[in-house]
Design goal:
Shape: globular
Number of helices: 2
Largest sheet: 5 strands, mixed
Radius of gyration: 12 Å
Strand content: 25-35%
Amino acid sequence: MKYTIALFGITKEIVGNSSTTLEVSDTLTTDGLLTLLRAEYPPLASIRSLLLAVNNEYAEQDLVLSERDEIALIPPVSGG
């Protein structure tokens, strides 16, 4: 399975690109994908409230992903 993940803010800076691709032999849940991303890019582990959006909606941790899903890694947002 091949997953393409859009990156924003600090996640884009950490990875060095506006997207990344992960290839794995089986399907993943959102939690499994986050685990792999944190292993691939260790600085992501220091971001406490990192979320995934799947198909333009915030995703639960146990959502099973499809290769066709639009996946985005959402860092914390600040501002005022």
